[in-house]
Amino acid sequence: MTEPVFQARALTKTYRMGEAKVHALRGVDLEIRAGEFIVLLGPSGSGKSTLLNILGGLDTPTTGDVRFLEHQLTGASEAELTRYRREHVGFVFQFYNLIPSLTTRENVELVTDIASAPMRADEALAWVGLRERLDHFPSQLSGGEQQRVAIARAIAKRPQVLLCDEPTGALDYETGKLVLEVIAKINAELGTTAMVITHNAAISGMADRVLRLGNGRIVGEEKPARKLTPAEISW
Amino acid sequence: MKSLDRKLLRDLWSLKTQVLSIALVIACGIGGFIGSLSTYSSLVWSRAHYYDTARFAHVFAAAKRAPQSLVAKIHAIPGVSEVETRVVRDSQLSIPGVVPPMIARLIGYDFARPAGMNRLTLKSGRWPAPGAKGEVVVNQRFLEARDLRLGQPMNVLLNGKLERLRLVGTVLSPEYIYATRGGGMPDDEWFAVLWTGAQALAAAFNMEGAFNSVLLRLQRGTSPDAAVEALDRLLEPYGGFGAVGRADQVSDKILTQEINQQRVFGTVLPAIFLLVAAFILNVVLHRQVNAQRGEIAALKALGYDDLAIAWHYLKFASVIVLLGVAIGVWLGWWLGNAMTGLYTDFFHFPEFHYRLEPWLLLASAGAALAAAFGGALAAIRGVVRLRAAEALRPPAPAEFRPLMIERLGYAGLLTPAQRMIMRNLERKPLRAAITVAGIAGSVAILIAGTFWGDAIEWFMDVQFNRVQRAQVNVGFAEPVSRDALWELARLPGVKQVEVTRAIPVRLRAGHRSYRTAINGVADDATLLRILDAELREAKPAPGGVLLTTRLAERLGVAPGDEVVAELLEGKRIKAGLRVSGTVRELAGMNAWMRLEDLNRFAREGAMVSGAGLLVDRAQEATLLERLKQMPAAAVVIVNRTLVETFRETSAKNVLFFTAILSAFAATITVGVVYNSARIQLAERAWELASLRVLGFTRGEVSVLLLGELALEIAAAIPLGFAAGYGLAALLLALMPHEMIEFPLVISRTTYLYAGSVVVAAGVASALIVRNRIDNLDMVGVLKTRE
Lengths: 235, 786
Hints:
CATH class of chain A: Alpha Beta
CATH superfamily of chain A: P-loop containing nucleotide triphosphate hydrolases
Largest interface: A-B, 38 and 34 residues
Strand order of the largest sheet of chain A: 6-7-8-3-9-10
Radius of gyration of chain A: 17 Å
Number of helices of chain B: 23
CATH architecture of chain A: 3-Layer(aba) Sandwich
Number of strands of chain B: 22
Oligomer: heterodimer
Strand content of chain A: 25-35%
Helix content of chain A: 25-40%
Number of helices of chain A: 6
Structural class of chain B: alpha+beta
Strand order of the largest sheet of chain B: 3-4-9-6-8-7
CATH topology of chain A: Rossmann fold
Largest sheet of chain B: 6 strands, mixed, barrel
Order of helices and strands of chain A: EEEHEEHEHHHEHEEE
Largest sheet of chain A: 6 strands, mixed
Distance between the termini of chain B: 33 Å
Structural class of chain A: alpha/beta
Number of domains of chain A: 1
Shape of chain B: elongated
Number of strands of chain A: 10
């Protein structure tokens, strides 16, 4: 058994939306080990994005405790959270969030410039199979290509965790599978812990562990008997 | 209230800082426009009103001594409705405790009955009692400048006898709105105008039954030229010095020049203000509407027609403009009141009248609305043209391409952040250009509004350190023999003496004429030099007359031409003179001849009328005391005191304008920079928040946005310097400059000041925006698409 990367205890998160209080998390306990491939499933409003944001240092819990390795994330300052994201976390978003004024290579360099021990930008792009399109701007790339650039950008810093929020949500079937293959390969070959939020239950076949969220709580946990490759799954 | 109007109110509220900053830019434009123009019209109206109620004369003439019997003949001149004669004499004045000598102009006045012309307004004290000996009233400005009290004893030299006078009241006179001995500058501290009983003054100067000054009022619609000619002919046998119409009367001439300067200041600068404000308004509204593209599409999808949508955004624009107009009108009214007050004080008009004409409000509000609608409509047209579904989709991803510098192979020179900044600038060059132009506009306005201090300083330096290098100038009551030079040289503290001769003259060329003096200068003169605008020295050629370029233009003559000179003194020679050259002097309408040539022309021996002295400062006080006791030295001017008075007066005005203009320029800069930053932030929030998610710090993200603005400000400042220089040149070209030509001199301090104000305003706006960058919604961007 490897050491836990994340340890969360009794996490709650309450938002105020005007007059109303929204309980996004109502007490989540969680432990994630290094190298795990986790899929977070659940309907809209179940709290999966809130959980991912807290783990990624974009948000802080209202109560409860969350640790990343030896770092206490609860109560960390804004500057500490920024440093945490900069050094340890790779994000992949549904809408890629590339910088339109920078080329493929430069979008990756944006991260390698500020990380402490990054890989070279072209190396990161080789991982996602985009070595040939180094000098293209985002407007010259397809959606799948843009998402792969985003993944290259996320892994270039050699993060311990890769957090993906609906990475295939905006992509067609074929392209979506290609992107999942890249994430699986990184998880397998670099040993990066991966967490993927999805609506798509078929993806859970790829996971080491599937966490189901509902109404702000973890309502179920499954360990698939056999971990499938992206090529083996379909939806 | 319809829901669309409710949306309008909420949009305005959520954009309140931007709305206010745009409104303030408009307010500055309108405030400057209304303030300056209403000041101009108030001053014109005040002057007309004052001249009317005081029955200011139309024609003025002086002679040596003319008999009262001439009055009937003067009255018979066609067009003359009233004639008034009096005795006027300049004399040395001394007040206990004041060392430098002063000049008193004594004017005989009949206090027993209301004057037909040039009526005095009593400001304080009382009128001299009938028959009381030695009681006088003085012009208010002198009392204030000297800080005197009523009852103050003063001594004047009356016909060679020292006479004690008592100050019983202060007055205002339309004839001495500007009290000056004839130069272009007010010298209230050194020149007193005293009105005293007419009979007593006539008796003191043996002028009973005679006069040496005459005033005419003309029938309505009569041109003064014919009356001036006729009066000159009548007075010629009695030593007439040449009559002038109101337009050439010294005080009115300076006053008119000042008011006209106000008109240039009041039209050119505010027009540019209004233009810059309109331009910024146009741009900002254009961007604002573009930013609401999604909402417009949604409204279309809901079935609102283009007209309703356009009207909605025009209302949005109108609210901002009307807010700006309201603040601007108030600001203009306040500014106009303050400036009119400042000038009323300066000119000593008896009453304060401020008028704000309705057309000014309509014109400025109209200009602002037109600019706003122009900007809003252009943007609305672009958006409503799209089909609803098309508009609902976000605009196609921005296309970028490598920078010029990268295409040239220098890509490695730039960091990714720098590349982002540069590519953003390169992708929207027009937008960057507009921001740069707006900021450059405020720099230019600042420079053009504040360089006057530099120009005046330079002018003073040239006039008093290079042209008139004498420290003390002495004027004799009558021309005296050149031997006076030796007498002056023997006085204590005198290091150098140079004599001059000035003869009042009327120069004629064809139908044009001008009354001035011909100045005779010695060939080896060093204390009085003739310098052109480039400080090159000119000398009158033997036998000819050298004219100031402005005077030559006024007379329509060029070198080689002949002018007819009618000397108004001595043998009153009337003969032709060859114009040997012209010189672009900064001040005056001068005619210069060699001293001996002038004396030969006047058919007089070696005569002089004044002298310039270089003195030892340590002995200056003793020297001045001695000069006071010399009856021949009617006028003694200490140049240093002139400079000081002038500086004090101009400093007050310059400071006021600098403060106002700085506030305006800062407001415009904040308006441009802040709005530009806010709109950029709105457009790029998604990108910047993504960077924050990737681990970029607040500072690093701020650099991306604010770096662009910093570059724009950096580009705008030198451009603004150039534009300011051009604008200053334009203002100078438009200024009326009969007596003075201001040089285009802008000091480094002025440039530095203008640059600093704009940088400070830019930094202030950046700080406000920085606060918003710090609070970017990182979670939100992950879920929403750009």
